Automatic annotation (TrEMBL):
Domain RNA polymerase sigma factor 70 region 4 type: 81-124
Record's protein name: RNA polymerase sigma factor (Sigma-70 family)
Keywords for this protein: DNA-binding, Sigma factor, Transcription, Transcription regulation
Family annotation (SUPFAM superfamilies): Sigma3 and sigma4 domains of RNA polymerase sigma factors
UniProt cross-references to Gene3D superfamilies, sorted A to Z: Winged helix-like DNA-binding domain superfamily/Winged helix DNA-binding domain
NCBIfam families: sigma70-ECF
PANTHER family named in the record: RNA POLYMERASE ECF-TYPE SIGMA FACTO, RNA POLYMERASE SIGMA FACTOR HI_1459-RELATED
One protein family per Pfam: Sigma70_r4_2
Amino acid sequence: MNNERFEWQTRCEFNAYCKHTLRNELINACKESKRRQQREVIFSDLAPHEERQLFTVDKYFANEEKDDAFRVGDLKITAKLLAEALRTLPDEKRKAVLLYYFVNKSDVEIAEELGIPRSTVQYRRTSSFEQLKRYLEERADEWDEW
């Protein structure tokens, strides 16, 4: 009988502990909600200069009539064409190219990040050039039509 009494007492203590913990969590959640409500601002209450701080606009392709293309021989290469060429690369090759040329990481750093040998990174980059070259040569003249 003593063992059953001990078990019952343990259950009651655990039950009280759980209820106490849940009550404290509810109190914390209510306080946090109240703090957030005090700091929140309704969009309609914002001044125009405050509204403009909430977003940014990417204007890179805004002026498409502007000729930002460069010519290689008789081929015209635009930023959109180059972006499309990069999108056609397989993911692993694209990552290697982007990390090397746009994030300025070395082959060793890229290899550590991707968990592959350095020679694989170098192979992926150099083989990507052939694919990019073929893609750009095939589509450089027809891109203007798009």
